[in-house]
Design brief:
Blueprint: H1 2-17, E1 36-41, E2 45-55, E3 58-67, E4 73-84, E5 87-94, E6 101-109, E7 112-116, E8 125-130, E9 135-141, E10 147-155
Antiparallel strand pairs: 1-2, 1-10, 2-3, 3-4, 4-5, 5-6, 6-7, 7-8, 8-9, 9-10
Amino acid sequence: MKSLLLFLLIAAVATFTAPAGAAGCDSLAGLRWLLGDWIAEGDRTTFQESWIERGPQTFEGSGIERGKTDGVLKSGESLRLVEMSGGVFYLSKVTHNELPVAFRLTGCDEGRFVFENAVHDFPKRLEYRREGEERLVVRVSDGAEKGFTLEFRRAHSLREY
């Protein structure tokens, strides 16, 4: 009886301390496919996201938006994916925020990764979904209905853009 109670207590603690769906979400290994360059075409702008490996626990990235007709930079952000404190974090530094914003990896399965920060104004949720070798879909949202989706394709050479 005592061992049954101990087992139930351990199971309850594990259930309430681990983020939902986070099993196996504690390393960058599942995100290696993201490395490289990605391009998304909007109506008036082109979005580019690029990722490189800086070390076994850090991927560094950048995201930029340029006007399609004039090539003028509309916005940019510095990005990092970092393994630390027993989890994976997505860090985004944009010009209008003094400090980077951190999103914790809260869910992952084959080719789908969800990063969340419930206390950030917008976005609160970033979902990266791999669709084959050449396609990436990113959903940026408030965790509910407000948001937008970018459909990227792998860019084999950014000099094309």
